[in-house]
Amino acid sequence: MNVVLRLVKGSSGKPLHPPLTDVSVGAYTLGVAALIAGKAGLQTPQMAHAALTAISFGLLLAAPTAITGLLDWLDIPRATPARTTATIHLVVMVATTVLFALTWLAQRPGYNHDEIRTLGLVLGIVAEGFLVVGGNIGGANVFVYGIRVLKRADTPVSKALNPLGVPAEVPPAAPEERATRTD
Questions:
Q1: Residue spans per domain, the chain
Q2: I want to staple 52 with a disulfide (CB 3.0 to 4.6 A). Which of 58, 59, 79, 111 is the partner?
Q3: Quick one: CA torsion of 61, 88, 126, 25, rounded to 10 degrees?
């Protein structure tokens, strides 16, 4: 079970939740941009298709993104500011996902008729607003509370860039490597 959990959560210094959020945020944002561009008259049939396709991709990633985030949330100590912030992030992101699902439903007929539906556009813009707020709150977990951040300044570059994660015990960099390091 530990191996499965590690695969789902990501390894030390390489959590899986952030890259999943990056891809879903990109997909959702592309979808909303296509809704706006299409409603403005720019290649409307293509934008109607692009919007629904991009939002569909974001929704497909919602489950793995939520699962990895939930596993990270479970590791945060209870009754701490970090847990409270993470809980707010969780609630906002669930609401965001629901709003994007409603956007998808509202825009689906527009996909068939090569048009941007006004309700789909409005819901998409509202969902994007929630996405920005939720992303900012999630960022606070990382940049304020250091959730899933190793903060090992002396880790050699070759170890830090390892896509499989940073080993549990990383020896400090050699003095000559620290002197020439530019990161």
A1: 2-149, 152-183
A2: 111
A3: -30
